[in-house]
Amino acid sequence: MDANVISAGGVVRRRAERSRGWLVAMLLALFVSAASAPAVAMDQAVQFMDRVAKDMIAASRTRSPAALQAVITRYGDMRSIGLYALGDYRPRLETADQEPYTTGMIRFISRYAANEAPKYPVKSVKFSPESRRARYGLMVDSTVTMEDGSSYEIAWMLVQQGTTYRVRDAQVMGLWMTPFLKKLFEDYIAQNNGSVKALVAVLQRH
Questions:
Q1: Is residue 146 part of a domain?
Q2: Which end of the chain is less congested by CB atoms within 10 angstroms, N or C?
Q3: How confident is the model at residue 11 (pLDDT cuts 50, 70, 90)?
């Protein structure tokens, strides 16, 4: 993720700017630490996000990256997020590496979330009762209140899959989150002579 960089030796180390790291850590904290406040007469997309929040709360209480991984897998549009994160290197992802890449990415995000979320305590999340249509899907607006009393607006992008939804992205203070993951992965691939296999290998080790 943004606040950590996968080094050539496969070790995750701090590198990104403080503000960028704070934004992503806050987003992860929302996923795993928030106590959601159900809205009245919620539409289906908002009901979905309410379930996401509740399941992430339950998973976070276990302090288990594996539990978080299960919830992220269940609710996130992880295949699309993973392909986007490869940027211009996407054509280099071989068919045989697609599943290992996606599972490795989810495990990486889950471990980072489990480690960072306690640093950014969220008191509550309140969802707007109705979603709104956007260019690439539906947006569910939320207000996040931190333990120190400060609050922030976060908009969740959902895509419909069959009769349910998946979380595709989130916008915090005007910034989308998936581009941070994309930059991290592209930088690592570039440092390894454009090898997507190198990225897949390091994600499988961590």
A1: no
A2: C
A3: very low
Q: Structural domain tally of the chain?
A: 1
Q: Looking at the domain assignment, is residue 181 inside a domain?
A: yes
Q: Read off the pTM.
A: 0.82
Residue 98 domain-assigned?
yes
Structural domain span for residue 9: 4-121+177-205
Q: Is 125 exposed, middle or buried (0-12, 13-18, 19+ CB in 10 A)?
A: buried
The DSSP annotation for the chain comes to -TTEEE-TTS-EEE-S-HHHHHHHHHHHHHHHH--EEPPTT--HHHHHHHHHHHHHHHHHHTT-HHHHHHHHHHHB-HHHHHHHHTGGGGGG--GGGHHHHHHHHHHHHHHHHHHHGGGS-EEEEEE-SS-EEETTEEEEEEEEEETTS-EEEEEEEEEEETTEEEEEEEEETTEESHHHHHHHHHHHHHHTTT-HHHHHHHHHH-
- Over residues 57-90, the pLDDT tens digits come to 788 777 788 988 999 999 999 999 999 999 999 9
